[in-house]
Task: structure prediction
Amino acid sequence: LAQQMGIGSVLLENPFYGYRKPAEQRRSCLRYVTDLFVMGVCLIFESAVLLNWLIKKGNWPLGLTGISLGGHMASLAAACYSKPVAIVPCLSWTTASAVFTQGVMARAIPWNTLEKQCTDEFGSSEIYHLLSSQYWDLMHVVMDEFTHLGKFSNPIDPSLAIVVAALNDAYVPRSGVANLNSIWPEAEIRYVNTGHIGGYLFRQSEFRLAISDALQRAAAKYEVVSGNVVKR
Result:
């Protein structure tokens, strides 16, 4: 981005990844379902702090972007931020529920362990019986409750969002989940004719173009005056 388009980046490392990985965690495999929610809350707050600092320094336009999990986290952070910013989620969609219960990632979940924990914790509760003892249904409900974009406020200006999705994404299924335009009607969706891995490896030029386009929209509609983002 910096070399080709003159766009600078602040790289925020996910909690539970890289240098922020707990010592007892193996690679990028989160140990608990709740770690995903803690990660999301941390990224939402940390993104807001960084954006406020950058705006205070007079930087504009600004945006949030990420790929896959990072893309969804960028969407959540933008939805919770109090000012308009460009948003470019790549290879993500509207909820994490389908990722962990329908997509390729579902095969990596230790369902037997989760089933035992669900039975131990909720086996006698009404909600567990309503779910017909299907532990993946419970996972689906919990994930939707905490990660579905429809559960959050819309970004201040959804027209600054350009979403890049893969047509053949087996990791982030779109079938049976809410379409992004039903939640953010003004957002633009661009599709790349590939899968999740192919998109990450071979279509990043289209991600960069979307970032540039979204930032140009933000620059055309807003400016920073005395530390505030205001319409032109």
In short: The mean pLDDT is 92. The domain at 1-95+148-231 is CATH 3.40.50.1820 (Rossmann fold). The longest helix spans residues 33-56.
